[in-house]
Amino acid sequence: MPRKRTGKTHIGEVRETRPNGDIYVYERITAYDPNTRRTHTIKLHLKGKIMAATQEMVPTRPKRPKGQAGIAPDTLAVRSHTGLTDLLEWAGQSSGIDRDVHASFHAGDAAKILSIARYWVATDGNTLPRIESWQNMHNLPYPYGISEDVYSDLFKSVGCNEDGVQRYFMCRASMLGKNPVIALDSTTISTYSENQTEARQGFNKDRDGLDTIKLVTLYSVKDREPIAFAKQPGNIPDVISVENALAQLKCLDIDTPLTVTDAGYRSEHNMTQYARKNRKFLTLMDAGSIWIRKEIDNLAGKLKQMSAVCPFDNTISGAASTVMHTFKWQRRRARGDKAAGEVETFTRRLHVYVFQSPERKVQREIAFKKELFELKRLVEAGQAEFTKAAEDKIAKYLVGTRLGRGGQLKVSFNDDTIEAAMKYFGYFALVSNQPLELFTSLEYYRLREKIEELFADQKGAFDSRRPRVWYPDNLRGRQFVQFVGLGYYCFIAKKIKEVQQKLGKDKETKSEKRLKLEKQLEKWIENHSFAQIMDWFDCIETTAVNTETVKVRWSTETIERDRLFLELLGVLKK
To answer: At 327, phi and psi to the nearest 5?
Structure first.
């Protein structure tokens, strides 16, 4: 029979050796969390440091009031911006991000990681040289100034600490519920640097022609939060990134997740990898594939029925079918009577979800016809150089003839081929090895698109459009801190969305005054971006005066609408 949980805390001592040989001595108070089954840090206090080549500990200097750099210990009054920092403190505690960072890294590094992450969220991605002055009026987990040397050393330390990074990923993954849905996608970071060995010429999503570093991210579709990421050379195409992603999913010990991918990852090889390893997947497949077109033809009649119309998007119709699909793969190693290089086959049941959008069909046809007319004009004008894709279309859809020897070139359309190509415009197919409700598969795929917004937010709001560091390990550390900040961002944005969904509901139980206030709040949220909401609450200040005779503390007043917003978020208690 296991021992009963006492709920007691433990006071211990932690020593961190720095690269210069100094040893920092911390007093740490820990407790056991029955939910995560891990010991977490409640409080950490720096007692002092032992200088290199010495034995005696030098006690740390008296701690200054948070957010007030250079203020003497006997200061009578302190003023700081608390509205925004209180919101970020709530987000860190409620989301479990603060707990997971402290469980994965030493206390000093954890406090710095959280401080920089919160700074990026609060300032919409301001550059780091400004953080030290910003700290003067804002309380952060790390109470001392974060100079350029401090965050540079932090990025190097975190970038080399793969144990801490993977522990954090595992902590985040452990919070997912049963049957999680994981989106897999990638983005690229452009750089001029020659020191970043992973920066190479490849598919550049910003289309600026620079060398790129690839960032592959795993995102929880249901929880709307990032789970883990991996850094890769820029010349690695998406289509061959699946094997490492599968290995990382196995490492995170997620309960049989359904992995959702877009067109960049679709290939017969990738489906084979998922099927061989019994991993669930849902992926967009090319409507031009022969076996997909066969299913489209089989389901064309059902797609015309009223019962096939999507309940949450009436412009789309859908139908499903089940097929037995044969996969082929080539052995890499010999085993038993199987030789290396031998091609093996196996069969799996696949579920094909076919969707049709008349609007997309019309738009695609218009764009296709415009493109063909433009190619026809260029060929008739005598242009000789085209891209490979344009050359293929000219050969397939255009017919060139000349009247007599040296006559004028006449270009016409190959109508039969064009008609065959346009037959499947407006169709798209999702394929999975798991049975899903028809329109649930569409919903999961559309939620996957949120990861694209995530990449845009990461580049814009977390100063990650450029590496801004010299070496690969430093970049790895910087990207991890950005990833932690991205967790804050997603959690707060999710909670704001939940607040929006609550407004105006249950009208029978609410007073007219409350409904009017909720309407004002709903309009205010719709008209303000995430960054504007953060700025709005940054104006709240707290002033504390402490003398021998008077101890007074007050904060900036807030209007009813703002208090309602903070109450619905959970920052303020009713």
So the answer is: -105, 150
